[in-house]
Structure formats: structure tokens, C-alpha cells
Design brief:
Layout: H1 2-14, H2 17-24, H3 28-42, E1 47-49, E2 55-57, H4 59-85, E3 91-97, H5 99-104, H6 106-116, E4 120-126, H7 129-137, E5 143-146, E6 155-169, E7 175-178, H8 184-196, E8 202-205, H9 209-217, E9 222-226, E10 235-236, E11 242-251, H10 258-271
Parallel strand pairs: 3-4, 3-5, 7-8
Antiparallel strand pairs: 1-2, 5-11, 6-9, 6-10, 6-11
Helix pairs in contact: 1-2, 1-3, 1-4, 2-3, 6-10
């Protein structure tokens, strides 16, 4: 059945039977057979065929895609755990981080985490909060560190620290520098605009904290950002203080592992 699920994942991501066949190095009739078997097993149509081998996922396919990725990840984790018991492998551990946490917080605790878990190789991926929630939900990341207060059905979140937001840059400028929708800081910026009845006259959306900071250092525009990243910039506190919780998240379909517990403890000890 794993072969069927891998074929299903390929079709779901490609939205095309031919491209899925090429990716899986199997024939197109085999792809069709695997999907047919899954549809018989689930008793549900998974794709709407739309000519030229196009495949439009159904609501059932959306659910199965998440579950299939979780099953695949759990299988890979199980194999790694078994190999680790035999003492002949290292484990890659995927951590998804929002930009402020990844730049200013995680580097403080990673060396301590590596010391506690010497057989682990950590892979740290930067993304906005929405992407991290999705990839923790599908277990592409074993754990996530996010700045957004969003929630998701499969996600357990715990607060490990708080940080304050400040207004930074040229306060006389009409230009607002904004992170992209889905990022934690954008959520708070939109709330701030609504609370203060602000409609930006000019704005630039940039999916990079580093690029925004670079523009601020050139005296271009203004923005709302974490006080952790406001060093060497002119800034002021909002009239109403904005203090946001920072969350560690994991998929509650998988038991919380010792590394997740240790990571939370280290972050709380260093930044609470």
C-alpha cells in the first residue's frame, strides 16, 4: 500500500497523471491503477479527471494527502529509530523557524541542544508561520518555532517566551515596509493598523526580515518589528504596548519526543 500512497502523493502534488508517472519512474497505466486501488479502498473519488491527464483533488484527497505524508514520515522515523538502536546511524531532525526566532533565539540554544543529542543532525528551515504550521501538520518538520497566534486542528502549541514589538525606521515616512501575509509579524501589523485606524498611503511587501532591516538602515520607510531586531535603528514603542507570545508547535498525532521537550526547556530558560 505504501507504493499506492507514494503514487497518490505524486499525483496530488503534480495535479497531473503523466507528470506523476515520470516522477515515480512508472507507467501512466500503473499510476491510474494505484489511484483506482486507493479509491476502491477508501470508497471515495480522489481526483476529478479533467482531460490531458489533469487531476483535480477532491476533499477526500486533501485529507488523505495530509495523512499519507504523516504515515510516510512516521515510517521513516521508525526506520531511523530502529537503526539508532543498533548504533549505526545518525538522525536528521527538521526544525521549522520563523525569522526573528531563527536569527535571534535559536542560535543561542542550538549548541546546547547538539550537546544533549550528539547523534542528531539538525536541519533548520526558515519559513513564515503559515508554512511552518502546514509542514509540522504533515510532519515534514518534527517541531516548529513560530510567532503567529494562529491555530490548526492537528497542532499542539506551547508558549516558550514573549517579545515586544516596536515601531522602527523613519517615523515621518509614509512608506510602510510589510512582511508577507502568513508571517507572524504581519498578523500583528494588520491588528495594529486596525487598532490605530491606519490605512498605509504607501507600502512595500517583502518576504524577508533582512531586506526590511537593510532598507530601514538606509533610512527608507518604517515598520513594526521585534525589539530583538531593532538594534542600531531609530525606534519607538507603540502608544499601546504590543507583547506577543512565541510558540513551539508539534503535531499531536505523534508523541512529543525528548528533543522537543529539551528544546522548549532551553528556550524558556534563555528567553523567559
Amino acid at each position: 500500500m505504501f507504493h499506492w500512497l507514494h503514487t497518490f502523493i505524486a499525483v496530488y502534488e503534480a495535479k497531473n497523471f503523466t507528470h506523476a508517472a515520470e516522477k515515480r519512474f512508472i507507467s501512466q497505466p500503473t499510476v491510474s491503477l494505484h489511484i483506482q486501488k486507493l479509491e476502491e479502498l477508501t470508497g471515495s473519488e480522489l481526483f476529478i479527471r479533467n482531460g490531458r491527464n489533469r487531476a483535480i483533488p477532491t476533499e477526500s484527497a486533501d485529507l488523505l494527502y495530509i495523512r499519507a505524508q504523516q504515515l510516510d514520515s512516521l515510517w521513516e522515523t521508525s526506520l531511523s529509530d530502529i537503526q539508532q538502536l543498533q548504533g549505526n546511524t545518525r538522525i536528521t531532525y527538521n526544525i521549522g523557524v520563523s525569522q526573528t526566532i531563527g536569527v535571534y533565539m535559536l542560535p543561542r540554544v542550538l549548541p546546547q541542544l547538539q550537546e544533549q543529542f550528539p547523534n542528531y543532525d539538525f536541519k533548520v528551515s526558515f519559513a513564515n508561520s503559515a508554512v511552518i504550521f502546514n509542514r509540522v501538520e504533515t510532519h515534514e518538520y518534527q517541531v516548529g518555532l513560530v510567532e503567529s497566534p494562529m491555530i490548526a486542528p492537528m497542532i499542539t502549541r506551547t508558549v516558550f517566551a514573549h517579545d515586544s514589538l516596536v515601531l522602527a525606521g523613519d517615523m515621518t515616512s509614509e512608506l510602510w515596509l510589510l512582511r508577507e501575509t502568513g508571517s507572524g509579524i504581519r498578523t500583528y501589523t494588520d491588528q495594529f493598523f486596525q487598532q490605530e485606524n491606519i490605512i498605509p498611503a504607501k507600502k512595500i511587501e517583502i518576504a524577508s526580515n533582512e531586506a526590511i532591516l537593510n532598507m530601514l538602515q538606509q533610512g527608507i520607510g518604517k515598520t513594526l518589528l521585534s525589539d530583538l531586531s531593532s538594534h542600531d535603528l531609530p525606534y519607538q514603542n507603540p502608544a499601546t504596548p504590543i507583547v506577543r507570545p512565541l510558540f513551539q508547535i508539534h503535531n499531536h498525532a505523534f508523541p512529543q519526543d525528548p528533543l522537543q521537550i529539551a528544546l522548549h526547556q532551553l528556550l524558556a530558560a534563555n528567553f523567559s
